[in-house]
């Protein structure tokens, strides 16, 4: 996007909040695994052995849900305004990237006033619209839109 000899006028990277770190995830799954094993043994001893299978299924679904949340927490968005234009790069949790470039003179930065939790920052130019800021709070989205507008106004 930019080189070291051309500093950016605006550079922001947006990451979602992470639910758990790797050590907390291992601890949580260990505690739930031990509890599940203990309950399974109680039900098997009482003669209700099919319940232990459902408890194991619950543990598996919990593991998959946290794994999905961890992958989603690796998403990011980078917005850069430099001499070459306004660049937006988006990475998903699987490593794929998408890239957009806007001419700063023509781009419009919009957000709903007053913002709601569903309001996103919209970059519009020549019939194309890109929504950014999914992982920000409404107040942070307003701040992003204002800062981006100021940087573009200073640039043009």
Overall structural class, as computed from helix and strand content, comes to alpha+beta
Biggest sheet descriptor: 4 strands, antiparallel
Indicate the CATH class of the largest domain: Mainly Beta
Helix content: 40-55%
Into which percentage range does the β-strand content fall? Answer: 15-25%
CATH topology type of the largest domain = PH-domain like
Q: Which consecutive residue ranges, at least 5 long each, have pLDDT under 50? A: none
Residue-averaged pLDDT: 88
Number of helices: 3
> Element order, helices and strands?
EHHEEEEEEH
Q: How many DSSP E strands?
A: 7
The CATH architecture term of the largest domain is Roll
Please, could you describe this protein's structure?
It is a single chain. The protein is an alpha+beta fold. It has 2 domains: 10-17 and 75-155, PH-domain like (Roll); 22-72. The protein contains 3 helices and 7 strands; from the N terminus they run E-H-H-E-E-E-E-E-E-H. Helix 1 packs antiparallel against helix 2.
Please name the defining characteristics of this protein:
alpha+beta, PH-domain like, 2 domains, four-stranded antiparallel beta sheet, 24% strand, 156 residues
Topology overview:
Blueprint: E1 10-14, H1 22-45, H2 50-72, E2 76-82, E3 85-91, E4 97-102, E5 108-110, E6 121-125, E7 128-132, H3 138-155
Antiparallel strand pairs: 1-2, 2-3, 3-4, 5-6, 6-7
Helix pairs in contact: 1-2
Q: What would you say about this model in short?
A:
The chain has 156 residues and is α+β, with helices and mostly antiparallel strands. It is built from 3 helices and 7 strands. 42% of the residues lie in helices and 24% in strands.
